[in-house]
What we know:
The protein is α/β, with parallel strands linked by helices. The chain has one domain (2-235). Helices cover 26% and strands 17% of the residues. The chain contains 7 helices and 9 strands. It has helices at 2-10, 30-41, 61-71, 95-104, 116-119, 129-140, 204-213, and strands spanning 17-20, 45-51, 74-81, 149-154, 158-160, 163-168, 174-178, 196-199, 229-230. Helix 3 links the parallel strand 2 (45-51) and strand 3 (74-81). The longest helix is centred in the first third of the chain and has 12 residues, at 30-41.
Amino acid sequence: MGDFKKKAVKxxxxxxxxxxxxxxxxxxxxxxxxxxxxLNTAGWTITNQHVFTTAASRRGHAAKLRKxxxxxxxxxxxxxxxxxxxxxxxxxxxxxxxxxEQMEEKVIGKIPEKYYSIIKDFPNNAGxxxxxxxxxxxxxxxxxxxxxxxxxxxxxVGKSLTFRTIGITRYGRRILEFELDHTRNHxxxxxxxxxxxxxxxxxxxxxxxxxxxxxxxxxxxxxIWGYSIGETExxxxxxxxxxxxxxxxxxxxxxxxxxxx
Length: 261
């Protein structure tokens, strides 16, 4: 990995990321910690995509995971819900829970904008990222750095949490109307698409009963009923692309847009 990075730097590449999928703090073993340290030392920034399953959506679970990952040198990237298809019914945590987690738990790690210039430089100094994150948490008084965004992995669209509830089925499953994540660039074709409508694969009450079955006190989740609207969070500057000495063209030469519009 170190040799690859050295060769890539010579041709002008500035940032190097590797994605992990840690689901639980219990997965962060000494072996995992040592492996992350080796990658960081070689100049690679490690980020994590946390799949927000039912079990992983329990109160405080994601917050604890963020903290543990920061301690070993991993930056949290996405906390995303599985698609709302029926084959994922057992693992599906409702989007209302994703918004609740964002607003009531992850908020304690929200980074004040005055520190954005500091974290933006983290990927350029991956070898010292553990110390850099620790120093920032001490300076800001944060238990972890909330650099991830809570989203749904939407079919055909990508990740977003910008939605509104437009209906409910006879069995209590909510019908949600989603919009694209407007903080990101999309293909011109996406602008011609209608809004995406999904029916969640389980009702909130079914989700809460499932949590109760695995030992949770559902009273801790009762505010979930009030979350009927979501909005995708702004991307933290740590994920901004670095400046290069060239500009990517805005012309599309391999798409005949007229055929699809």
